[in-house]
Design brief:
The protein is mostly beta strands. It is built from 6 helices and 54 strands. Strand 46 and strand 47 form a beta hairpin. Helix 3 packs antiparallel against helix 4.
Length: about 750
């Protein structure tokens, strides 16, 4: 059952101890937590979260951490076990830390929680003993406020006003829980909501040891949770876990609305009862005075009493929060501990939908006491633990919520151009492809400077000079428009101004060169002027492969990143960057295919299944639209300023599941889109390969085709392309000339004119 912490309550007789509409994502039914691969790529989580496994008094205090984010995107993480707070920048890079255990001003006397930011100036912490510390956003201590009751949470409103909720002990075993508004300058305070609870109701039975101490066995599901969150209008949303009613108050404390949740308490099963007994038995073994011979029998008798468990869960939810669109999210209990669900309500309390969280490769625990699941400007930040990790599994994850669901035609009114297997020109023999060589560059009198090994891309300056990047060469070679070698620049290494494994080179309108270095340890964009002088660099994602890079006329750098198509760990993204490497926008063209069933090569036994995803290839049309072709299925997506405006599909017999992958021991076909190129006249063509793979014979037979489409997305004709003869296509310039890495015994750069007649 998600998720109460079952403990043995110790009672001593002498006293107590974005950006878009997030609703569209929720309505999909599943919120996929797919980490932004560019976030915190330089952060050492093994060092920052080395306290992760720390446990005290049977509590995993190393996992207790709060997240608070400032308006400019700075991230603050409070470490409960360490009495300190980390500050990270908007990209997840560590900046500094502050706070320590102690009794001086600015120290934490008890372990602290990090609550909120007041007026975008001060971080507010509390220690659950009435001590509330204020720090500026650089971590400098500002002031201390002491409240005469324990504070569990605090939210900042405006004009130096905060809302508190906590508990005040009354005579006997009564506790008053409530929400109060407090002016931190005048000290004025008024309660706007309260709930009186008799704590003696928590104690079902007492265990008295030989030493005379009295311990109480806690009745299950009796402790009431109080939740308080803020709306976008600074209204205060208050709920109690034992009631389906939620009340909304104005910033001045007047009630302005209330609504009921669409939740029915779930039955308590024998599984929950057994888990509760095991948790109590585990708790009492920590105390030597509770390990007498008959103690376990006493506890078991208590827990198995017919009156001990209620029939239904007396709580409606275990957490309540708001997202960055102002929607109210109510996290509900389920009978499966591994499943996290929440219901979505509008800011006015209207029920919208129910959503299940898919954590992917992570484990998450949404704790009602600590803020470890935070929405900010359309993104989601959460503390999550990798399911498979060789070191510390915990890390701060950023999810670009606008990217978690691939775009589909359904419900979005996105135009779809549907094409059959045969093109409009398929039966017209006069429509043919003619390829004319215009220029070639290979070894000549310039010697070794002109030797290529693995040409990947070329950029062309306004004067016709060619800047060629070779994957195996740590330098860029420059030729004039006649193919004569001029110079080279670059030095080998993985530093900011060094080159290695160059994959793409692009030129912007200011005649600056952008070179993508595909290195495992330091993948990055390095920027040079046309003379080879280093200007700057920034890091690209290290978790996925960049398939293409483009520079928009406004200077945005666009990268298409694709992960392993057989892996569900990462996803495919299109990222728009500024010159400092900050993400301006991101979106995912990912298309889930289905599970691939892999057979043993020696039998028909299925040895594993795995999901298959597509990989993006892109090119920019002359009008600035971005054409993204998925590896498979046969689908092209067209974007304008990051918004999907059209999809183009072609039926193709080679793009079926069976033909896309081979089964072990059986020769199968595999087709995929390899590249897409936009012609100057608005047409575009795809490079498609169709391979026959035979594992037994250890052979691959590959045929290449160029599939031509008109400017509206109608399939015209497929032309066979002899890659062995003409070379691998690496670039097409603004005039439509095609450059290839041809091989006539030695690598050479060849410029062709492709005439689709």
């Amino acid at each position: 059952m998600k998720k109460l912490i079952f403990i043995l309550t110790l009672w001593i007789s002498t006293g107590l101890s974005y950006a878009g509409n997030l609703v569209d994502i929720y309505k999909n039914g599943t919120l996929r937590l797919i980490a932004d691969p560019t976030f915190a790529i330089n952060t050492d989580w093994d060092t920052l979260f080395s306290d992760y496994f720390l446990v005290k008094n049977n509590n995993p205090i190393g996992t207790y951490k709060d997240i608070v984010i400032s308006e400019n995107g700075d991230i603050f993480i409070s470490n409960y076990s360490r009495y300190n707070i980390y500050k990270l920048d908007r990209n997840g890079n560590y900046i500094t830390q502050f706070g320590q255990e102690g009794r001086e001003l600015g120290d934490f006397f008890n372990r602290q929680s990090l609550n909120c930011i007041l007026d975008n100036q001060y971080l507010i912490t509390n220690e659950n003993n009435g001590r509330m510390n204020f720090f500026d956003l650089n971590g400098n201590f500002h002031r201390l406020i002491e409240i005469d009751y324990g504070v569990d949470n605090c939210i900042a409103l405006n004009d130096q006003t905060i809302a508190l909720f906590g508990g005040i002990i009354y005579s006997g075993m009564r506790m008053k829980y409530g929400v109060a508004l407090k002016d931190i300058e005048t000290g004025n305070e008024k309660f706007i909501s309260s709930y009186m609870h008799d704590l003696s109701d928590l104690i079902f039975a007492e265990l008295i040891t030989e030493s005379g101490f009295t311990y109480g066995v806690q009745k299950p599901f009796e402790r009431i949770g109080l939740f308080m969150v803020k709306s976008l209008e600074n209204n205060i949303i208050v709920g109690y876990s034992n009631s389906p009613e939620v009340v909304i108050y104005s910033p001045r404390g007047e009630e302005i609305d209330r609504f009921n949740l669409n939740i029915n308490p779930i039955p308590i099963t024998q599984k929950e009862k057994d888990e509760y007994y095991e948790s109590i038995e585990k708790s009492i073994t920590r105390f030597e005075s509770l390990t007498e011979q008959n103690m376990s029998a006493k506890v078991k008798a208590i827990v198995q009493s017919p009156d001990f468990f209620p029939e239904y869960m007396p709580h409606y939810y275990y957490n309540l929060m708001t997202d960055s669109d102002g929607n109210i999210l109510v996290f509900i209990y389920t009978n499966e501990p591994s499943i996290q669900k929440f219901q979505v309500y509008s800011p006015e309390g209207e029920y919208i939908c129910e959503t299940t969280i898919d954590p992917g490769i992570y484990n998450i625990d949404i704790n009602s006491r600590f803020k470890n699941f935070v929405f900010h400007h359309g993104d989601l930040y959460c503390l999550a633990a990798l399911k498979e990790s060789s070191g510390i599994p915990l890390r701060l994850m950023k999810v670009n919520l606008s990217s978690v669901i691939p775009e589909t035609e359904e419900g979005k009114n996105i135009p779809l151009v549907e094409n059959g297997e045969r093109g409009l020109w398929s039966d017209d023999p006069s429509k043919r492809l003619r390829i004319e060589e215009v220029q070639s560059i290979k070894v000549n009198e310039e010697g070794d400077d002109c030797i290529f090994s693995n040409i990947k891309d070329v950029a062309i300056a306004e004067n016709g000079d060619l800047y060629v990047c070779d994957y195996n060469e740590p330098r860029i070679k420059v030729f004039n428009q006649n193919g004569t070698f001029i110079r080279k620049f670059g030095k080998k290494g993985d530093g900011r101004d060094e080159l290695l494994n160059n994959l793409f080179i692009e030129m912007d309108e200011q005649n600056q060169l952008y070179i993508y270095n595909n290195q495992i340890k330091n993948p990055r964009i390095s920027i040079f002027d046309l003379n080879g002088n280093f200007l700057s660099s920034f890091k690209f994602p290290s978790l996925t492969m960049c398939h293409k890079m483009q520079i928009r006329p406004n200077g945005e750098i666009i990268g298409a990143f694709g992960s392993d198509p057989f892996s569900s760990e990462f996803t495919d993204y299109i990222y728009h960057y500024d010159h400092e490497g900050n993400i301006i926008k991101s979106y995912s063209p990912r298309h889930f295919i289905e599970e691939i069933k892999m057979k043993s090569r020696y039998s028909d036994k299925i040895i594993r299944t795995q999901p298959s995803y597509s990989m993006p290839h892109m090119d920019m049309a002359s009008n600035g639209d971005l054409y993204c072709a998925l590896g498979y299925p046969y689908l092209i997506k067209v974007y304008k300023n990051g918004q999907l405006i059209k999809m183009i599909h072609r039926e193709c017999s080679n793009f079926t599941l069976e033909n896309r992958h081979y089964l072990y021991g059986l020769p199968m076909g595999r087709s995929a889109i390899r590249q897409i190129f936009c012609l100057p006249d608005g047409r575009f063509f795809l490079l498609v390969d169709d391979s026959i793979i035979d594992i037994i014979e250890d052979s691959i037979a590959t045929n290449y085709f160029l599939d031509l489409f008109d400017s509206e997305g109608h399939f015209l004709k497929s032309y066979q392309y002899d890659q062995d003869k003409y070379g691998e296509i690496i670039h097409m310039d603004s005039e439509g000339y095609v450059y290839t890495d041809a091989r006539d015994g030695i690598p050479m750069l060849v410029k062709y004119r492709f005439l689709f007649e």
